[in-house]
Design goal:
The structure is a homodimer. The first copy, chain A, has three domains: about 45 residues, no CATH class; about 140 residues, Response regulator (Rossmann fold); about 130 residues, 3-Layer(aba) Sandwich (Rossmann fold), CATH 3.40.50.2300. Helices cover about 45% and strands about 15% of the residues of chain A. Chain A is built from 14 helices and twelve strands. In chain A, the strands form two sheets. A six-stranded parallel sheet of chain A has the order 2-1-3-4-5-11, sandwiched between helices. In chain A, strand 6, helix 10 and strand 7 form a beta-alpha-beta unit. In chain A, helix 1 packs across helix 2, helix 2 packs across helix 3 and helix 11 crosses helix 12. Chains A and B meet through helix 4, helix 5, strand 2, helix 6 and helix 12 of A and helix 4, helix 5, strand 2, helix 6 and helix 12 of B. Chain A binds a DNA duplex (16 and 16 nucleotides) through helix 2 and helix 4.
Chain lengths: ~325, ~325
Amino acid sequence: MKKSITLKELSKILKVSISTVSKALNDSYEISEITKKRVREAAKEYNYKPNRTAMNLKSGRVNTIGVILPSLKNFFLARVLRGIENVIAKTDYNIIISITNESHEKEVQSVLSLANGFVEAIIIAVSEETQVLQDYSHLENVKDKVHLLMFDRVVNTIPCDKVLVDDYDAVLNAVKELQFNGRKNIALTSTINNLSVGKLRIKGYTDAINEYHKPIIIEGTVEVIKKALREKLKEESIDAIIALDEEASLASFKVGKKEKLLDNGKISLIGYAGKTISENLTPSLTTINQHGKKIGRTAAKMILNKLKNENEKPEEIIIKSTLYNRETTRIKE
Amino acid sequence: MKKSITLKELSKILKVSISTVSKALNDSYEISEITKKRVREAAKEYNYKPNRTAMNLKSGRVNTIGVILPSLKNFFLARVLRGIENVIAKTDYNIIISITNESHEKEVQSVLSLANGFVEAIIIAVSEETQVLQDYSHLENVKDKVHLLMFDRVVNTIPCDKVLVDDYDAVLNAVKELQFNGRKNIALTSTINNLSVGKLRIKGYTDAINEYHKPIIIEGTVEVIKKALREKLKEESIDAIIALDEEASLASFKVGKKEKLLDNGKISLIGYAGKTISENLTPSLTTINQHGKKIGRTAAKMILNKLKNENEKPEEIIIKSTLYNRETTRIKE
DNA sequence: TTGAAAGCGGTACCAT
DNA sequence: ATGGTACCGCTTTCAA
């Protein structure tokens, strides 16, 4: 690959000093118009572009923000990323993205590597494994070197910017709405029992059903949920399901569909899932919308603000979820 | 933010020269074991980490690959990205991602900026606007500075690595399959008439139906497609639809569903859409799978190979699509 | 108005 | 075995 021409080479061609060329290109008042013109023309002719690495080294900045995500499969995280991208694209910062695939090891590696001169700030949703292991030393390690912002799955013990989802309230309210609509025996399905957000959501559920009936909680992989749910539907008189994530939502949907309980409204279903899929299912799926894009935008703005005003103290913002009522809660028996 | 300690500072603390510290940390044979030990311990104590920017400047390399995508909404592109990530994660390269939102201007900016010292290679699917304008000068510009790989939407006139989809064949075969199953009047819907891949797919369609009936091509936005399709369904005796992208697929699906033509197999439907949504629709959607992840993996491997062997000549690989038969082509009248 | 030189944080060659 | 120094490409201060 051809390398770009450097200031030095350009200065040799023009038979002036390096500093003259540099100043001319930066439109310094010290340089005569005539020289500036000569230099600019030569720069154009030889397609001179300043070397980023050199400028970064000189300035001590890299103008880059790291985004560490557990997965891109997850529609919510993908939307958050788009929100972040949206805001950052308008600035002179760049984004570098790392996907951990829910692996703690990969996350540690990414965090340390990015924090080490690659980026000035990190926006992260920690991986499932990290939350299980509760090992946050890598984040502790870097929190003085780069600005840190956690969203969705956060670590409470680390003081830093946070953008949170109102998991507890969202599920509590969703369940209450089911109850308000006459549902008396509500089951819960989840594949994210390991996540902090999953736990908060379950708390919302148990608190909501508290005085009415005993909890029916079905956690595990998609297959486990399908099997267990099918059985529970036979044993107990379940008339509604709340699903805590997309996988659980679709698993519950499939079972409900197969057992012929959804199309006729014998059970209601509220889930977490992307808009496209929720709208296109038959019946369409009522969901709790976390406003991923807004979360991303908020996170990006917060971190830009910290980058600008070095000494501001950590903030914490909660983005409220919204219930999107669709057919799975609208069909009456 | 606290800055990392530098070699210089460390050398001052240890009262040895900078070069000694550098060599010790790099385990040079020139340094005595005892000094190495001292240095290593101090490095650990002060949490010394070499400055990436400095090393990059010194080595003239940045170990980063840029990925430029038109959108992340697109399930196919998201999967390609995961494929790329998958392969690159196993190397010491980093990925920097830029989303153009189908804008030519953003693409030009991204390409030039990334090529200018940010990355050593660029993997790109050009934006819709770029294909409409047919302005590829930014790519011409950088193709000697960084390794370039285009996938999916490629520019034929630029010689560089390419990973292609067999758009023409895939649609041709899909239509033939519909015909083999007795479908006699096949319509086509598409929101990607601006894209090279969209055009190739239409060619596949027209060549397939060629001798049998005149083409019924419905192009435009989702709303346009819905309206036009509804009308065409009334006028003409359409018994099958092929949709060229996810939006067109879902629009066609919705119309077919509403007109009660899908559940009873009065029309067949083949589309392009992600696995999750296709499987969960009722009836489930037969799709042409482009194997996005494989495309991503292939692209990443190709570019890594070029990075390793500077002088290899450009390659071109075609990844064959596969028809996934689901209910929209299985239900018989 | 121009240029020399120091410095950003490393590596590596050459002396000592 | 250790240290001095040049260099990567740029900016910036200071001197001419």
